[in-house]
Amino acid sequence: MAAAGHLSGGRLNLTLLREAARDELKAVLGDERQKKVIVWDESLIKPVGLIAEVPFLKQLGVYKMVRLPVSNLTEAYPEANEYLFFTKAKVSMVEQIVQSIRESTARKQQTAKKFTVVFVPYATQHCIDKFEEYKMTNGLKLPTFEFAITEYRLETLPLDSDVISLDLSTAFTDLYLQSDPTVVHQAARAIGKLQAVFGLYPKIVGKGKYAKDVGTILSRMHTEMMANPGFAQSLKELTPQIDMVVLLDRTVDLLTPLCTQLTYEGLIDELYGITYGASKFPRETFSEDVQNVRKGDPPTPGPLTVPLTSEEEVFGKLRDFNFRKVGKYLSSEAKKIKEIYDERKKAETVSDLKQFVQKLPHIQATKLSLSRHTTIAELIKNTTDRDDFLGMLHAEQCLREEDNSDKVLDYTEKCMGMGEPVSKILRLMCMQSVANGGLKPRLMEQYKREILQSYGYQNLISLCNLEKAGLLRLQEGKPTFPLLRRQLRLIPEQIDELNPKDISYVFSGYAPLSVRLVETLEQSGYQAFEECFARDLTFQITQDNSSSPAQAQRKKRLPTSDRPQVVLVFFLGGCTYAEISALRFLSEKEDAVTEYIVGTTHIINGQAMVDSVLSETPLFVPTHLWNSLGDEPVPKVTASDRGSL
Amino acid sequence: SDSGPDKDTTVDMAERAADIQASATADWNPLGEIYVKRYSNYELDWGINLADYLVAMSPFAGPLALMPKQRQTSMKSEITIYTLAGKKISTITWEGGRVIELGWTLSENLVCVLEDGSMIIYDIFGQFLYSRIIQREIQTSRVQECKFFSYTDKDKVFGGFAVMTCNTEFYIIVDIDKGKDEVRIKKLAALPDASSKPGCWAPLCKESTSVIVTVEDRVYLLSHLDATLYEINCGKKSATCWMEVAVSLNGKAVALIDREGYMWAGTTDFKSSDTEFDLQLKQKVARVQMQWGEMDYFVLVIDRIMFVKGLGKHWCKYPMNGPCCLLAEVDGVRILTNTACEFIHRVSTKSLNVLRIGVMEPGALLNDAYKEYEGDESHKADEFVRFIKDKLSIAVSQCIEAAGEEFVPKVQKSLLKSANFGKGFLGSEIQPDLVNAFVETCRELRVLNSVRLSKIGIPITLRQYRRLSSGVFVDRLIYHGLYHLALEICEFLKIPPSEGTVKVLRNWALKKVQDKSMSDAEVAQKIKKKLKDANVVVSYGEIARAAMDAKRLTLAADLLRNEIFAQDQVPLLLEMDSDSTALEKAVESGDPKLIHQVLRQLKLKLTTERYYQMLHFRPVAAALYCKVLKETDQEQLLRLYRQESLFVESGCMYFAQSFTARDTDIRKQRLFDAQKEFRDAQDIFATKAIEEHAKLTTEVVKLGLKETATLSEAVIWCVKNRQPRQAEQLRKDFKMTDHQYWWAMIRGLCDIGDYAELDRFSKQKKPPIGFEAFAEVCITHDNYREAAKYIPKAALENKYHLYLRIQDYSKAADAAFQTRNIGGLDEVAIKAARTPEIVDLVRQMKAKLEGR
User: Which residues in chain B have their CB less than 8 angstroms from residue A461's CB?
Assistant: First the structure.
């Protein structure tokens, strides 16, 4: 199977998920002898591309792909029998589709054309109604026009060998701004559905309101599944591969995603943004061999897209390092490569040479990787050395380490005075509010006034929404964070970013609360996890399946570092790369008895999170990334193109 | 006491055992190589003379229907359905036309075929299922005769009926159980001798269904394509005139008889014959009934005599006391008379091996051994056992098989005991298959004995039962309403719940809700208890729906509460007008699709007011609805927000619209609306902010700036355009914070490069944002020289960084030294590596700091 090497390295074989998703896509596309045109909702190209590369789609009869909006489909591609619109369930998309279908069918057709709308991952009644307004009902069959509506339930997207995303890019605002229960249900369904592949979860624990809701739906689903004797039986026969699921509501720890991540992968995401395991960088900064062009060739326009998955050995190592360690690692690896090349010179016998030649492809690939990441690291360093960046880190550090720190006020005001992006200011404000359990009324009012005066009164809406999402609030009662800081040792006395002993290395001296909670659960048990805070929103469910011999057997043994337990940590409302790295750190510790798999509604970082809340503010332009290059002009995709979508 | 072979009764003496054997073989009748056995299942005391009735029996020991033969076309009449034991199941009052024939489908539905070409279907309880015209043409040609057929071969079971019209056209009708519109009708090719009257005919099922028709001595096979004439090579001198024809259930054998009693039997391709025989009847007969038993014998009834005709010349006969009816089963022929329900069948080899007198098969010897053992002649028993020592497994298996063939529990029991006795000698060497066969047969016989009891009246044989499969058998019991029995059998036979218990209980419950003799509460309680006790999951939704169809709403609601699948529960709740509960359950399920579904229905059903009220108590549903409105109907959303007193929400929405609306007037109106909402929300800050916003917009437009300019931008603009008074005015009017005002001033002045004015401004009063800000802005304008003017006035701890940024390393080192910032000194040393004096200076400073 093509292009999925990065999924198979972990304890759970996530290629199984990809396989299942491919099978389902095959079923959606149907008869591969039918010539098909796919029309994409732009936002789906990449996620579906992770599951199905172009040659695979070609095999299934897709010969042309275009993106919405399109017109005159039938005229442009008259030889196709079927036109499939892959879209998310959004009314605005539906309207575009309706328009393009109507346009395409306005002229008289000679042959029957089939139009199929494929909702990913779900259709909503609302969208179906919209089609019906235009007399397009599912299953409509006229002599020259057929219409169908279907779903492609691509619920879980395996991003890497230990990361599953539901790819719900608006999950945070859906949950905390709109209180929309859809995300809760989608998450519960997706988590529940994994059981069909990985067996019944013996135990589910969680913290936070929505985590609890997901737990409730999961136990409901459990009852329903067990009511289906056939399904229950097949579940019982499946050896559970996941020993426990930990559900974490993002509101349990809003501070961590607001902090600037200092791991390699986290920084790339903060500065350049990572989407679906790839990121874009200024092309000209890379060497020719990395750009994959010959010397002297005319420059290719647009940024360079670099895939960032564990498939690339060097990145697999680097991604979880604190950025400070990256340079050292890269140079020592480069040295090793050089030594190997030097050995060649010493090689005297034929067999020595042969041995070297055998190693060559691997060495060359490594060399290329090192070159690529050296460039990226340099790009990052240019930013992290900047005073404004350091100033922000300093401010963040103060907020985490000191109670009611006023030092930050000056910094924040300076940023405002200098006219820095409003979302940066708001991110800091939110962080201050979250760390101190709210802002004092006077401070709040001062901030608000200054925001409105410096950035326009429309930000009144931004402020309302941030309050609604719980990121900003007035101080009342005793703040919990300072307490937790001591109780859970979130700020270590010593920090060694090069040879970390603790997860706090991911933020250079702050252990992410979310991951610390998971660690507490592992080391001190459920009661300690429960008692940390939000007791009434903490829960534990055991899915009894004791009649299953496989599970009974599993129950008996305690996890050891040879046979670790597998725990799925699921973040509702998003998680950051730094948190993933911290969980990996726990899995890879010498005496680790637990292997963590990360599930999340989507991947976030502080700016993206704040920006998503600001998206309803008029005139708001997302500026959330330091060095983001924006979207390159994308060439039209046709089936003749090689490689991934 | 006769309900099961393994129930203990005391069989004590050898004589008793011998009796049993004698009684088991007494009614055997030799027929060449084979024996036939006639067994009476039930004595009937029902006062019926079959001669006066149309009779329809159904295969696999199914029910029986009787209807008085009609003399006139439209006479009120009755169809009565009985079990084979003569117990009445139901009665249908008949007021329709003339019934030509009654018959049963494979699912035990009763079919009445009428002269006018219509067919009417009832279930065994006399419930009307459907009626239809078979085919328009038949309406005019009328039905003359009709014959039901069933076909059973290997794993195929198939059935239907054939019709002969008055103008001698033939039709085949199948798939009756599939429903009115699924019935398949096939017209067959025309009979070549259309003018002459057919002698006899019978449907023939092989690959396709056709009809055998005789005209005098000619035999035709009519398929839907063509008619084939078959020459029968028979030895009879004079010309025959066939009067009856019978086809075996597997469609492989056919038998013909003429009026003089001359018979021919052979394959259905008429190529080879097994039997040619002349009964040499004295006089021509008027009516013959003929049915195949198995492939090697068939049964005829002529006048009051029943002949069983074997292969070759062998035959035997039984006297009959009155009229009778025959029906072919897979393993024999069922005979219904005025006084009994009987079964005639060939004694199977299995029975012969054990029970035939004088046979030396291991099974027989084992049986003898057991008899001796029972009779306290254990040394003889021992001798017998030793004699068959090597074949003990075969002996046991033969006894088990023989037991399965018997109707009489005593005989079954005796044979099974013999088998068990033999099993004992096998000890641990016994094959597991044999143990299974023993257990299985015991179970099956126990089941069969219980349904054979006359109160149930299903005299099914083990072979028929196995042919039917336990699943279908349970279905039949369910269909007969014998739920209790079905349940016991499911448990006894260990049928998986989904095919057994669940199915039975589901059907039971569906029936129970129609039981009007019990109150709603009683029915509900009974159903719940039973389902709970059985510990299986049956869809309460489905049962509730049935209750609703039966117009028992309270019962339906009660039952529906127990449904665990929300998607089976919620739609029904809506139908029952339990709106609030429907919404509650949908919300509980967390399934947005379900919630949407309910909301849609409610919106259509309720007044807006009531609908909003409903949402008020279900915030999750409300949130979902709001999300939809946000995409589709903002006006409605605003109404909802106001209704719910969510003034901040509506305020924000209006405010957002004041930016996005195209029309200027609308924008103004929206701003006004927003302010009102915030006022209602008692948000003083926001109310004032909007007021200021409106004022600012007017001001900036006056200045010639774009509408969306911020206060800071406006102040900077003023500074840049040398309108300091204007800037000052803005500051006052909008109570701009000191900090932001100073920043704006500095930025404005730096933007236009008026550093002299900047200097003046810095000296006006002590800057509230410190001199650092001056330096900072100068640095961002790349003017290090100007920046350097302000750094000395900055706070000590900030100097180091600022000097570093303007690359004044010696001063940076100085600042670092003063703040004892060793790391800072190192940094300076790195940055100033090319200037040895500074590196040297740093070294000295470090030494000083570290030395102390």
Answer: 652, 655-656
Question: Which chain B residue is nearest to residue A219, measuring alpha carbons?
Answer: B589
Residues 779-818 of B with CB under 8 A from A: 780, 801, 805
- Concatenated DSSP letters of B389-427: GGGHHHHHHHHHHHHHH-S-HHHHHHHHHHHHHHHHHHG
Q: Which residue in A has a C-alpha nearest to residue B686's C-alpha?
A: A460
Q: What sign has the CA pseudo-torsion B652, B655, B656, B657?
A: positive
Q: Do A582 and A262 form a contact (C-beta atoms < 8 A)?
A: no
Query: What pLDDT shows up at residue A639?
Result: 38
Give phi and psi for B201, each to the nearest 5: -155, 160
Among B627, B629, B647, the residue to mutate for chain A (most A Cβ within 10 A): B627
Residue A476 φ then ψ, to 5°: -150, 145
For the cut 80, the answer to whether the pLDDT of residue B597 exceeds it is yes
Secondary element (H or E) of residue A587: helix A577-588
Contact status, residue A217 vs residue A185, Cβ threshold 8 Å: yes
CA distance to partner chain A, nearest, from residue B610 (Å): 22
Distance CA A238, CA A240 (A): 6
* Chain A residues 245-304 with a CB less than 8 Å from chain B: none
B739 Cβ contact list (under 8 Å, min separation 6) = A413, A417, A450, B768, B769
Does residue B487 or residue B6 have the better pLDDT? B487
pLDDT for B427 equals 81
Confirm whether the ipTM is greater than 0.90.
Answer: no
Helix B738-751, helix B724-733: angle, nearest 10: 160
From CA A258, how far away is CA A261, in angstroms rounded? 9
Confidence (pLDDT) at A5: 60
Taking the C-alpha atoms of residue A467 and residue B354, their distance in angstroms, rounded to an integer, is 91
Q: In the A/B pair of chains, how many CB contacts fall below 8 A?
A: 147
Q: Measuring CA to CA, which residue among A139, A29, A137, A23 is closest to residue A83?
A: A29
Task: Say which residue, A573 or B23, is predicted with more confidence.
Answer: A573
Contacts of A92 in chain B (CB under 8 A): 631
Task: Please tell me if residue A452 touches chain B, with a CB cutoff of 8 Å.
Answer: yes
User: Helix, strand, or coil here: A603?
Assistant: strand
The answer, yes or no, to whether residue A640 has pLDDT greater than 50, is no
pLDDT at A408: 87
Amino acid residing at B613: Q
What is the arithmetic mean of pLDDT over A66-73?
83
∠ Cα B335 B17 B1 (to 5°): 65
- pTM of the entire predicted model: 0.76
Cα-based distances in Å from B529 to B524, B532, B536: 8, 5, 11
- What's the confidence (pLDDT) of residue A520? 94
Q: How far is it, in rounded angstroms, from Cα A64 to Cα A69?
A: 15
Per-residue pLDDT tens digits for A189-220: 999 989 988 888 999 999 999 999 999 999 98
What span, in angstroms and rounded, lies between the C-alpha atoms of B743 and A419?
9
- At A250, list the tokens: 């993002």
Mean pLDDT of chain A: 86
Cα B842 from chain centroid (whole Å)? 85
Q: Which residue has the higher pLDDT, B698 or B429?
A: B698
- Res. A26 pLDDT band, cuts 50 70 90: very high
The better pLDDT of the pair B355, B16 is held by: B355
Contacts of B278 (CB under 8 A, 6+ apart): B236, B260, B261, B262, B263
Using the beta-carbon criterion (under 8 Å), do A458 and B659 form an inter-chain contact?
Answer: yes
B737 in contact with A at a CB cutoff of 8 Å?
Answer: yes
pLDDT confidence of residue A614: 93
Burial class (CB in 10 A: 0-12, 13-18, 19+), B466: middle
Pair of tokens at residue A297: 């060739």
